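Hey Z.,

So I finally got round to the zinc ion thing we talked about over coffee. Here's the setup:
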Amino acid sequence: MLLEPEAVAKTGNNRRAFLIWQTWRPALLNRGVDEPVIEINTSATPASAAPAAAAESSKPPRPPHLLWRVARAVTDIMLPPQCVNCDGLVERGDAADALRYVCASCEARIEFAREPCCPTCGFPFYGEMEEAETRVCEHCEGLSPVFSEGRTAVLFKGAARALVHELKYHNVLYPLRDIETLLKRAPRVLEIARGATLVPVPLHPRKERHRGYNQTFFIAECLAKAAGGAKSGARVEMLLRRVADTVSQTTLDRATRRANLRRAFALARGADAKVNPDQKYVIVDDVFTTGSTLNSCARVLRRAGAKDIKIATFAHG
Ligand SMILES: [Zn+2]
Ligand SMILES: [Zn+2]
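And the result:
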């Protein structure tokens, strides 16, 4: 597996042992208690899986078995959970809304996007601001959004960045638990997700095969659950597919990225019949960078007849 430079820097024997432990720990100890139990589909993520997952989230959690609680307490003493950002110990309580893989110090430095925010991408404006809703931030300059509004949960740095990196480059799913917890603390993002069809930004099939999953699909599922599951009307549908593999866009300038992305997406097979002009759509991505990817996705939905299109990202950076 090819790792990106930052991922390589974090790879070492201790790190590897930690990752293996963090990956298997939920399966060994917490399954059915409070960890996300997600089956990885190695083929393209089926659109039909999403409503079922959303319905699943409305079930009450099973109470933890005493034996598992004891086993977890023992292993926490022997192999205590480490912070994904600083490798420090995570001293956690049993509260459902506690972060499990981020220490208290790193958690305190996670920055949520609080109002006033850029209406296009959700990046917070700092300092005194008048008529913020009419302004766009430096990240959105030159972007002609096809969507009506964008919101983001946190800024892409520190522990939030580390969670996304683990999910994307280390083939582990445990960060999803904390990502869902953080999304629950972002009311502006939950607000637009409710009653909406959440459309994950697709990966190219080759990349999805290589990674084994599309992390954005899982983040969209986390968002649907955080928003209240099926009761809230939020459901995930893979309406789009990626037809061009736009690898390594990070080295290109903004204009070239946008040009490359223009024709990178298309409707998923059979999705044209599902696009409803009266339905609310929220395109979901892990991170907002330039907005080009999300805008290209929005353009495809708009052409297919969708009228109410917004975007939501877990992080912004
Ligand atoms: Zn930490
Ligand atoms: Zn912006």
